[in-house]
Design brief:
The chain is an alpha/beta fold and about 270 residues long. The protein has one domain: 3-Layer(aba) Sandwich (Rossmann fold), CATH 3.40.50. The chain is about 35% helix and about 15% strand. It binds NADP nicotinamide-adenine-dinucleotide phosphate.
Length: about 270
Protein backbone atom coordinates (compact mmCIF):
# COMPACT_ATOMS: atom_id res chain seq x y z
CA UNK A 1 0.00 0.00 0.00
CA UNK A 2 2.85 2.37 0.69
CA UNK A 3 5.09 3.73 -2.01
CA UNK A 4 8.47 2.09 -1.98
CA UNK A 5 10.62 5.14 -1.35
CA UNK A 6 10.03 6.97 1.86
CA UNK A 7 11.56 10.24 3.02
CA UNK A 8 11.70 10.84 6.73
CA UNK A 9 12.40 14.06 8.56
CA UNK A 10 12.48 14.00 12.28
CA UNK A 11 9.99 16.70 13.21
CA UNK A 12 10.71 17.14 16.88
CA UNK A 13 11.86 20.54 17.88
CA UNK A 14 14.59 20.12 20.49
CA UNK A 15 13.35 22.50 23.18
CA UNK A 16 15.45 22.37 26.31
CA UNK A 17 14.08 20.79 29.48
CA UNK A 18 13.63 24.11 31.29
CA UNK A 19 11.53 25.56 28.52
CA UNK A 20 9.39 22.44 28.25
CA UNK A 21 8.78 22.49 32.00
CA UNK A 22 7.91 26.19 31.94
CA UNK A 23 5.43 25.63 29.11
CA UNK A 24 4.06 22.57 30.89
CA UNK A 25 4.28 20.80 27.55
CA UNK A 26 6.10 17.62 28.47
CA UNK A 27 4.53 14.45 27.15
CA UNK A 28 2.23 13.14 29.86
CA UNK A 29 2.37 9.65 31.30
CA UNK A 30 -0.57 7.42 30.26
CA UNK A 31 -1.86 7.59 33.86
CA UNK A 32 -2.31 11.35 33.47
CA UNK A 33 -4.73 10.92 30.56
CA UNK A 34 -8.14 11.01 32.17
CA UNK A 35 -11.60 12.01 31.00
CA UNK A 36 -13.43 10.97 27.86
CA UNK A 37 -11.83 9.52 24.75
CA UNK A 38 -13.84 9.11 21.58
CA UNK A 39 -12.77 6.69 18.86
CA UNK A 40 -14.68 7.30 15.62
CA UNK A 41 -14.83 4.50 13.08
CA UNK A 42 -14.75 1.05 14.62
CA UNK A 43 -13.13 -0.89 11.80
CA UNK A 44 -9.91 -2.88 12.06
CA UNK A 45 -7.67 -0.13 13.42
CA UNK A 46 -10.42 1.81 15.24
CA UNK A 47 -11.57 -1.23 17.20
CA UNK A 48 -8.00 -2.05 18.19
CA UNK A 49 -7.31 1.60 19.11
CA UNK A 50 -10.23 1.63 21.55
CA UNK A 51 -8.96 -1.54 23.25
CA UNK A 52 -5.36 -0.29 23.36
CA UNK A 53 -6.30 3.13 24.73
CA UNK A 54 -8.31 1.55 27.52
CA UNK A 55 -5.41 -0.79 28.34
CA UNK A 56 -2.74 1.95 28.30
CA UNK A 57 -4.71 4.80 29.89
CA UNK A 58 -6.93 3.19 32.55
CA UNK A 59 -8.31 6.56 33.71
CA UNK A 60 -9.85 7.27 30.32
CA UNK A 61 -13.46 6.44 29.60
CA UNK A 62 -13.19 5.23 26.01
CA UNK A 63 -16.31 5.57 23.85
CA UNK A 64 -16.58 4.22 20.33
CA UNK A 65 -18.70 5.80 17.63
CA UNK A 66 -19.71 4.40 14.28
CA UNK A 67 -22.54 3.90 11.90
CA UNK A 68 -24.61 0.78 11.34
CA UNK A 69 -25.25 -1.89 13.94
CA UNK A 70 -25.70 -0.21 17.36
CA UNK A 71 -24.22 -3.15 19.27
CA UNK A 72 -20.69 -2.63 18.02
CA UNK A 73 -20.23 0.93 19.31
CA UNK A 74 -21.36 3.25 22.11
CA UNK A 75 -22.56 6.14 19.95
CA UNK A 76 -24.35 6.12 16.63
CA UNK A 77 -22.36 8.42 14.36
CA UNK A 78 -22.33 8.57 10.61
CA UNK A 79 -19.49 10.99 9.95
CA UNK A 80 -21.07 11.93 6.63
CA UNK A 81 -24.31 13.03 8.29
CA UNK A 82 -24.64 16.64 9.48
CA UNK A 83 -27.52 15.61 11.77
CA UNK A 84 -25.34 13.06 13.54
CA UNK A 85 -22.46 15.52 13.87
CA UNK A 86 -24.82 18.22 15.20
CA UNK A 87 -25.93 15.91 18.01
CA UNK A 88 -22.42 14.84 19.00
CA UNK A 89 -21.37 17.61 21.38
CA UNK A 90 -24.62 17.30 23.38
CA UNK A 91 -24.17 13.54 23.60
CA UNK A 92 -20.60 13.95 24.83
CA UNK A 93 -21.36 16.74 27.30
CA UNK A 94 -24.13 14.63 28.84
CA UNK A 95 -21.34 12.28 30.05
CA UNK A 96 -20.10 14.99 32.46
CA UNK A 97 -16.43 14.28 31.90
CA UNK A 98 -13.83 16.48 30.21
CA UNK A 99 -13.14 15.48 26.62
CA UNK A 100 -9.47 14.44 26.56
CA UNK A 101 -9.03 12.78 23.16
CA UNK A 102 -10.84 12.31 19.86
CA UNK A 103 -9.34 9.96 17.30
CA UNK A 104 -10.82 9.55 13.88
CA UNK A 105 -10.16 6.02 12.58
CA UNK A 106 -12.73 6.09 9.79
CA UNK A 107 -11.84 6.01 6.14
CA UNK A 108 -12.51 4.38 2.82
CA UNK A 109 -10.33 3.18 -0.01
CA UNK A 110 -12.51 0.80 -2.00
CA UNK A 111 -16.07 -0.48 -2.03
CA UNK A 112 -18.59 -2.19 -4.26
CA UNK A 113 -18.72 0.87 -6.51
CA UNK A 114 -15.40 2.44 -5.53
CA UNK A 115 -12.21 1.27 -7.21
CA UNK A 116 -8.87 3.03 -6.65
CA UNK A 117 -7.89 4.39 -10.06
CA UNK A 118 -4.86 3.10 -11.94
CA UNK A 119 -5.10 5.66 -14.74
CA UNK A 120 -6.76 8.96 -15.63
CA UNK A 121 -9.47 7.22 -17.68
CA UNK A 122 -10.84 5.73 -14.44
CA UNK A 123 -11.09 9.08 -12.59
CA UNK A 124 -14.77 9.95 -12.02
CA UNK A 125 -16.59 12.79 -10.29
CA UNK A 126 -18.64 10.35 -8.18
CA UNK A 127 -15.56 8.52 -6.86
CA UNK A 128 -13.75 11.79 -6.10
CA UNK A 129 -16.74 13.01 -4.09
CA UNK A 130 -17.08 9.71 -2.25
CA UNK A 131 -13.40 9.70 -1.25
CA UNK A 132 -13.36 13.35 -0.18
CA UNK A 133 -16.56 12.93 1.80
CA UNK A 134 -15.08 10.48 4.30
CA UNK A 135 -11.32 10.99 4.00
CA UNK A 136 -11.14 14.78 4.14
CA UNK A 137 -14.50 16.45 4.89
CA UNK A 138 -15.53 14.10 7.72
CA UNK A 139 -12.41 14.66 9.90
CA UNK A 140 -12.57 18.47 9.83
CA UNK A 141 -16.33 18.49 10.48
CA UNK A 142 -15.74 16.07 13.36
CA UNK A 143 -13.29 18.60 14.83
CA UNK A 144 -15.91 21.33 14.39
CA UNK A 145 -18.51 19.16 16.12
CA UNK A 146 -16.38 18.58 19.23
CA UNK A 147 -14.91 22.10 19.48
CA UNK A 148 -17.64 23.34 21.86
CA UNK A 149 -16.22 20.93 24.47
CA UNK A 150 -12.68 22.33 24.42
CA UNK A 151 -11.37 24.40 27.34
CA UNK A 152 -8.35 26.70 27.38
CA UNK A 153 -6.97 25.11 30.54
CA UNK A 154 -7.62 21.50 29.56
CA UNK A 155 -5.26 19.28 27.54
CA UNK A 156 -6.96 17.85 24.47
CA UNK A 157 -5.78 15.71 21.57
CA UNK A 158 -7.42 15.47 18.19
CA UNK A 159 -5.86 12.79 16.01
CA UNK A 160 -6.91 11.44 12.66
CA UNK A 161 -5.71 8.58 10.52
CA UNK A 162 -4.25 9.79 7.26
CA UNK A 163 -2.02 7.73 4.97
CA UNK A 164 1.50 8.03 3.67
CA UNK A 165 0.09 7.81 0.15
CA UNK A 166 -1.53 11.20 0.87
CA UNK A 167 1.93 12.76 0.88
CA UNK A 168 2.43 14.83 -2.29
CA UNK A 169 6.20 15.06 -1.83
CA UNK A 170 6.47 11.31 -1.42
CA UNK A 171 4.25 10.40 -4.39
CA UNK A 172 6.54 8.58 -6.77
CA UNK A 173 4.23 5.89 -8.10
CA UNK A 174 0.99 7.75 -8.95
CA UNK A 175 -2.42 6.07 -9.13
CA UNK A 176 -5.18 6.07 -6.50
CA UNK A 177 -5.99 9.64 -7.54
CA UNK A 178 -9.05 10.20 -5.36
CA UNK A 179 -7.82 8.47 -2.18
CA UNK A 180 -4.40 10.14 -2.32
CA UNK A 181 -5.93 13.56 -3.00
CA UNK A 182 -8.54 13.17 -0.27
CA UNK A 183 -5.89 12.26 2.32
CA UNK A 184 -3.74 15.20 1.15
CA UNK A 185 -6.76 17.49 1.56
CA UNK A 186 -7.34 16.12 5.06
CA UNK A 187 -3.73 16.90 5.90
CA UNK A 188 -4.16 20.51 4.79
CA UNK A 189 -7.52 20.94 6.58
CA UNK A 190 -6.15 19.61 9.87
CA UNK A 191 -2.93 21.59 9.52
CA UNK A 192 -5.14 24.73 9.28
CA UNK A 193 -7.01 23.51 12.34
CA UNK A 194 -3.79 23.04 14.32
CA UNK A 195 -2.79 26.65 13.63
CA UNK A 196 -6.17 28.07 14.62
CA UNK A 197 -6.42 25.92 17.74
CA UNK A 198 -2.87 26.84 18.84
CA UNK A 199 -4.19 30.41 19.21
CA UNK A 200 -7.55 29.58 20.71
CA UNK A 201 -6.93 26.39 22.69
CA UNK A 202 -3.26 26.45 23.72
CA UNK A 203 -3.41 23.00 25.30
CA UNK A 204 -4.80 21.31 22.20
CA UNK A 205 -2.69 19.02 20.01
CA UNK A 206 -3.68 17.98 16.49
CA UNK A 207 -1.91 15.00 14.92
CA UNK A 208 -2.21 13.24 11.55
CA UNK A 209 -1.12 9.62 11.71
CA UNK A 210 -0.08 7.02 9.16
CA UNK A 211 -0.71 3.61 10.73
CA UNK A 212 1.52 1.60 8.39
CA UNK A 213 0.02 -1.08 6.19
CA UNK A 214 -2.35 -2.95 8.48
CA UNK A 215 -4.33 -6.12 7.99
CA UNK A 216 -7.91 -4.80 7.74
CA UNK A 217 -10.78 -4.84 5.24
CA UNK A 218 -9.43 -1.62 3.77
CA UNK A 219 -6.05 -3.08 2.79
CA UNK A 220 -7.19 -6.65 1.97
CA UNK A 221 -7.33 -6.33 -1.83
CA UNK A 222 -3.79 -4.89 -1.91
CA UNK A 223 -1.98 -7.08 0.59
CA UNK A 224 -0.38 -9.39 -1.98
CA UNK A 225 2.12 -6.60 -2.76
CA UNK A 226 3.13 -6.23 0.88
CA UNK A 227 5.92 -8.35 2.43
CA UNK A 228 4.49 -10.25 5.44
CA UNK A 229 6.85 -8.53 7.89
CA UNK A 230 5.57 -5.13 6.77
CA UNK A 231 1.90 -5.95 7.35
CA UNK A 232 0.88 -5.02 10.89
CA UNK A 233 -1.90 -6.64 12.85
CA UNK A 234 -4.50 -4.07 13.98
CA UNK A 235 -3.33 -4.60 17.59
CA UNK A 236 0.27 -3.86 16.71
CA UNK A 237 -0.74 -0.79 14.68
CA UNK A 238 -2.82 0.45 17.62
CA UNK A 239 0.00 -0.06 20.14
CA UNK A 240 2.37 1.90 17.93
CA UNK A 241 -0.11 4.72 17.28
CA UNK A 242 -1.03 5.11 20.95
CA UNK A 243 2.62 5.35 21.92
CA UNK A 244 3.22 8.02 19.24
CA UNK A 245 0.15 9.94 20.44
CA UNK A 246 1.28 9.90 24.06
CA UNK A 247 4.51 11.63 23.00
CA UNK A 248 2.75 14.53 21.29
CA UNK A 249 2.53 17.94 22.96
CA UNK A 250 0.78 21.18 21.91
CA UNK A 251 4.15 22.51 20.78
CA UNK A 252 4.22 19.74 18.11
CA UNK A 253 0.63 20.25 16.99
CA UNK A 254 -0.01 19.91 13.26
CA UNK A 255 2.46 17.09 12.60
CA UNK A 256 1.99 14.32 10.03
CA UNK A 257 3.61 11.28 11.61
CA UNK A 258 4.13 7.63 10.76
CA UNK A 259 3.54 4.72 13.15
CA UNK A 260 7.16 4.96 14.34
CA UNK A 261 6.90 8.65 15.24
CA UNK A 262 8.84 9.83 12.19
CA UNK A 263 7.62 12.90 10.35
CA UNK A 264 6.27 12.38 6.82
CA UNK A 265 6.86 14.82 4.00
CA UNK A 266 3.65 16.76 3.16
N1 LIG B 1 -5.23 -0.51 6.80
C1 LIG B 1 -4.21 0.14 6.25
O1 LIG B 1 -3.26 -0.48 5.74
C2 LIG B 1 -4.16 1.64 6.27
C3 LIG B 1 -3.00 2.26 5.75
C4 LIG B 1 -2.96 3.66 5.75
C5 LIG B 1 -4.00 4.39 6.26
N2 LIG B 1 -5.11 3.75 6.75
C6 LIG B 1 -6.21 4.56 7.26
O2 LIG B 1 -6.59 4.10 8.54
C7 LIG B 1 -7.99 4.37 8.74
C8 LIG B 1 -8.68 3.14 9.29
O3 LIG B 1 -8.66 2.14 8.30
P1 LIG B 1 -8.83 0.57 8.60
O4 LIG B 1 -7.67 -0.07 7.97
O5 LIG B 1 -9.13 0.34 10.04
O6 LIG B 1 -10.10 0.27 7.68
P2 LIG B 1 -11.49 -0.42 7.99
O7 LIG B 1 -11.30 -1.65 8.81
O8 LIG B 1 -12.16 -0.54 6.68
O9 LIG B 1 -12.22 0.67 8.89
C9 LIG B 1 -12.73 1.86 8.37
C10 LIG B 1 -13.88 2.28 9.25
O10 LIG B 1 -14.38 3.54 8.80
C11 LIG B 1 -15.76 3.49 8.99
N3 LIG B 1 -16.51 4.47 8.23
C12 LIG B 1 -16.57 4.63 6.89
N4 LIG B 1 -17.44 5.60 6.59
C13 LIG B 1 -17.96 6.04 7.77
C14 LIG B 1 -18.93 7.01 8.11
N5 LIG B 1 -19.56 7.74 7.18
N6 LIG B 1 -19.21 7.22 9.41
C15 LIG B 1 -18.61 6.49 10.37
N7 LIG B 1 -17.69 5.55 10.11
C16 LIG B 1 -17.38 5.33 8.80
C17 LIG B 1 -16.15 2.10 8.54
O11 LIG B 1 -17.45 1.80 8.98
P3 LIG B 1 -18.46 0.94 8.07
O12 LIG B 1 -18.09 -0.48 8.37
O13 LIG B 1 -19.79 1.34 8.57
O14 LIG B 1 -18.21 1.31 6.64
C18 LIG B 1 -15.05 1.29 9.20
O15 LIG B 1 -15.43 0.96 10.52
C19 LIG B 1 -8.52 4.90 7.42
O16 LIG B 1 -8.57 6.30 7.45
C20 LIG B 1 -7.46 4.47 6.41
O17 LIG B 1 -7.42 5.31 5.30
C21 LIG B 1 -5.20 2.39 6.77
Amino acid sequence: MSPTSISFNHHRNPLDDKKLNRLNMRPQSPEAWSGLALVCGTGGIGGAMATELQRTCPSLTVLTAGRGDHHTHDLQLDLESDNDLDRLSDELSSRNQPLRLVINCSGRLHGPTLHPEKRLKQVERRQLIEQFSINSIAPVLLAKAVEPLLRRDQPFHFASLSARVGSIGDNRSGGWYAYRAAKAAQNQLLRCLSIEWARRWPKATVTLLHPGTTDTELSKPFQSFVPAEQLFSPQRAAEQLVSVLLEQTPEQSGAFLAWDGQSIDW
